[in-house]
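Tokens in:
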């Protein structure tokens, strides 16, 4: 449970740290499937007009050749970040030649595992490794699971925040160690309280029957093609979404950087018998990069990750070891089909507030008992999050979702008031979402189900209609000549860079 932040916030304000809070940095990575006009997954190659997925800084692909990923630069201005994300959408829409972007996290109607094409990154060593890694994901988890999309939110406090904050707390740690320590405090609290984000932002209460692909399940039917849970918030984040028997056995500690790196390194270097039986295969038919529990760090499925920007040739773990935690990556956000970009400025301001609360709030280590409790809460909130009277587990016993939410919002309002002294719109954003605590019918998950029931449409049909509507909106505001040329040049440069990599290796 939380303890009052008020005295700490007062000290923070008195220490002159408000100005630095205006420099919070954020970046967005958003995935989106390319679909045909009839709502099927596109089987066309990554459009050359968008550049090379291997080397483009802002438009790449995730698991599938048909799964675009838009990446904004990190910046301290919310409007600029969203404007750039909008430009990426608009430029892409102008180059899709009849295709559209799927506006949801759970995929369109699929035609079996092999209907999802694995991303191709060319013949360079780097491109080949990325492709083989995805072959391993297919072998281990299946392509259908990998077709799920989401939004990743990158968050960091500015450099000039950390030294005065360290002095405020009287920490004897080095600045780098202190920063990592506080980011891990944030991560632990995120795991404790992140159920609130799933309740508020979950937008995948239903899916196409094709996603289950013959698997047994306990979902209800809604129409001919839709499966759902009546009170679900995010099936993407439930046991039906990303799942792995091998990873279910992992316990990657978030109690500190050293423990985290040790546990993750062990998973990266431990063979797993079922994967060993698959084998790696030989060029050009490799099945996976290796037979370990994790092929690479990014295979670890976690709702939040500590990150550092890797230097050339360095792995994510090597970057963390060298520079400590530089930012965190939130990975639990569904794409909201009601929003043109899947996310908006109100949600970002709430995320800023929530993450700063997690960083400032007391954050004891997570023991095994609490780890299991967090896991059980995750299942409840994803599958039954809007159920009236829902209760969640705490160290003191079960507590109602609304009662626990009220306590959290009391602290979030205080943090928002602090942030409003450095910016604007934070308290308004928090109070906007506080209303949804008492009115589940306002959450995106409820609104999606209500839309399907009111219109008698299947999930895939309504999402395809929404894709067409959003595509028209994107095309109504064409890019300026300079904006269009900017993205065309990025595409040309990325294609040239990929050719250079391939030519250099052949030579």
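Residues out:
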């Amino acid at each position: 449970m939380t303890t009052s932040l008020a005295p700490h916030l007062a000290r923070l304000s008195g220490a002159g740290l408000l100005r630095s809070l205006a420099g919070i940095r954020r970046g967005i990575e958003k995935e989106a499937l390319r679909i045909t006009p009839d709502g099927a997954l596109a089987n066309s190659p990554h459009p050359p007009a968008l550049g090379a997925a291997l080397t483009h800084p802002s438009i790449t692909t995730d698991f599938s050749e048909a799964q675009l990923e838009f990446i904004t630069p990190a910046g301290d201005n919310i409007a600029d970040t969203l404007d750039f994300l909008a430009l990426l959408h608009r430029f892409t829409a102008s180059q899709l030649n009849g295709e559209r972007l799927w506006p949801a996290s759970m995929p369109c109607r699929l035609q079996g595992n092999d209907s999802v094409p694995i991303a191709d990154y060319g013949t360079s060593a780097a491109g080949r490794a990325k492709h083989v890694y995805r072959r391993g994901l297919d072998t281990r988890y299946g392509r259908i699971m990998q077709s799920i999309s989401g939004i990743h939110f990158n968050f960091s406090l500015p450099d000039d925040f950390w030294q005065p904050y360290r002095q405020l707390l009287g920490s004897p740690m080095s600045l780098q160690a202190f920063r990592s320590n506080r980011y891990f405090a944030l991560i632990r609290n995120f795991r404790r309280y992140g159920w609130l984000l799933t309740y508020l932002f979950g937008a995948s209460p239903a899916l196409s029957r094709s996603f289950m692909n013959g698997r047994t399940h306990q979902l209800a039917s809604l129409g001919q093609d839709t499966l759902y849970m009546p009170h679900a918030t995010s099936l993407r984040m439930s046991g039906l979404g990303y799942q792995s028997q091998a990873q279910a056995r992992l316990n990657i500690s978030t109690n500190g950087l050293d423990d985290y790196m040790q546990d993750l390194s062990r998973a990266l270097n431990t063979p797993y018998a079922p994967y060993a039986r698959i084998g790696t295969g030989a060029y050009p038919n490799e099945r996976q990069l290796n037979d370990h529990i994790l092929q690479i760090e990014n295979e670890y499925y976690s709702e939040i990750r500590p990150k550092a920007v890797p230097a050339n040739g360095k792995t994510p773990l090597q970057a963390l070891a060298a520079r400590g935690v530089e930012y965190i990556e939130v990975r639990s956000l569904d794409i909201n089909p009601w929003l043109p970009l899947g996310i908006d400025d109100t949600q970002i301001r709430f995320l800023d507030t929530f993450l700063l609360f997690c960083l400032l709030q007391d954050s004891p280590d997570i023991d095994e008992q609490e780890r299991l409790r967090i896991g059980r809460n995750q299942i409840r909130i994803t599958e039954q999050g809007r159920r009236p009277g829902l209760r969640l587990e705490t160290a003191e016993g079960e507590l109602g979702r609304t009662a626990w939410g009220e306590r959290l919002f009391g602290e979030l309002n205080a943090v928002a008031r602090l942030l409003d002294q450095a910016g604007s719109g934070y308290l308004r954003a928090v109070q906007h979402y506080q209303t949804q605590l008492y009115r589940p019918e306002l959450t995106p998950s409820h609104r999606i189900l209500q839309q399907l029931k009111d219109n008698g449409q299947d999930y895939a049909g309504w999402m395809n209609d929404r894709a067409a509507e959003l595509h028209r909106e994107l095309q109504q505001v064409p890019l300026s000549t300079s904006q269009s040329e900017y993205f065309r040049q990025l595409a040309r440069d990325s294609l040239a860079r990929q050719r250079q990599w391939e030519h250099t290796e052949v030579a």
